[in-house]
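Handout, page 2. Input:
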Amino acid sequence: QVQLVESGGDLVQPGGSLRLSCAASGSIFNIYIAGWYRQAPGKQRELVASIGSGGNTNYADSVKGRFTISRDNPKSTVYLQMNSLKPEDTAVYYCNLRLASTPRGSGYWGQGTQVTVSA
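Output:
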């Protein structure tokens, strides 16, 4: 069983930056695809960014050029650096780990961390 603990969510002004962290325990971290999802009120959960075990990354169009996903395998941690934040980035952000052989959206989830972008 994998446990995920997110941190780093906060209230930030538009144009500001935040770095989210997700620490994993309970399994071999580097075999998983790590992803960050978000869910805004009244909206479906959406994939923000993902990073494979080899470091290949994928981003939603809405965050390309502003967000950067990275992973530190020895520390079993995945990060999401968020720059130039916009009010529409406001959401609960969730960390996810899944095996490559499993569907997107499956696997293990953290409890979520709130990001609010507001003046």
